[in-house]
Amino acid sequence: xxxxxxxxxxxxxIAGVAQANPNTYIVKQGDxxxxxxxxxxxxxxxxxxxxxxxxxxxxxGQPLALAQGATLAxxxxxxxxxxxxxxxxxKATIQADRLNVREKGDLSGQVIGSFSRGVVVDVLQRGPxxxxxxxxxxxxxxxxxxxxxxxxxxxxTVSRSGNPxxxxxxxxxxxxxxxxxxxxxxxxxxxxxxxxxxxxxxQFGVKxxxxxxxxxxxxxxxxxxxxxxxxxxxxxxxxSGKITHVGIYVGNNRIAHAASRSxxxxxxxxxxxxxxxxxxxxxxx
Length: 285
Description:
The chain starts with a helix and ends with a strand. The protein is globular, with a radius of gyration of 20 Å. It has 3 domains: 2-75, LysM domain (Membrane-bound Lytic Murein Transglycosylase D, Chain A); 81-149, SH3 Domains (SH3 type barrels), CATH 2.30.30; 165-282, Alpha-Beta Complex (endopeptidase fold (from Nostoc punctiforme)). Strands 4-5-16-15-14-13-17-12 form an 8-stranded mixed beta sheet. The protein has a 5-stranded antiparallel beta sheet with strand order 8-7-6-3-9, with no helix packed on it. By secondary structure, the chain is α+β, with helices and mostly antiparallel strands. 22% of the residues lie in helices and 28% in strands. The protein has 7 helices and 17 strands. The chain has helices at residues 2-20, 33-39, 44-51, 165-173, 193-202, 212-215, 268-274; strands at 24-26, 63-65, 91-94, 98-102, 111-116, 120-126, 130-135, 138-143, 147-149, 186-187, 190-191, 220-222, 232-236, 245-251, 254-258, 263-267, 276-282. It comes from Ammoniphilus oxalaticus. Residues 23-66 form the LysM domain.
């Protein structure tokens, strides 16, 4: 009974903070990004930009900024007080379920990947609002609001692969990062997920079927614990009961794929946790 009362009190306090700040909103059960945008005279793309969201997915209790530059600190979204990254600290821990990494320290910067909550990053350069960080081969700018100084005790570590193929794969994939998503796209002018995997594998002499479901029937099944760079990862990203998304494992617990907006390299943990995972296939031997 005390736990329930505490939960209700916490919810009330968070909601009260959001009401006190008209530029923030706390996601409730049944909310969608479209409905929130409509109710607050904004577009879905604006809200995604203001909050650094790469997809339309939101969760109950999540604070959302409703204006450019709105602070979410009082809604419990950011690191607080002395835990904020400050000068002289070389490590920080990601404090967001999925934090976009950008090519420059501004919301207009191209999203080049993302980190999951708990990942420890090296802080290479600090600014008043954005920091240049690096982890698992991904280097870019993230908002200071989602960094906590130091390495936490329960951290999602990044595994490192010694596979010599990894650097060759990176040389093919890296120039494609930022290529716009295009349904049915199969070239650097625009990719969908299976078009991207087919294009990359084609650079290594492997011809893949056109769609992700058919690509799943090619190659040898691989256990998640034994993934190597070049393995294909298959997911149901729509909750439709079938394979709807495919990406390429590039090492260091990262996936290269044509996401909803562009080709990016992301922390695979978020996808394993949020989408149904069908398995991995090795098509390069």
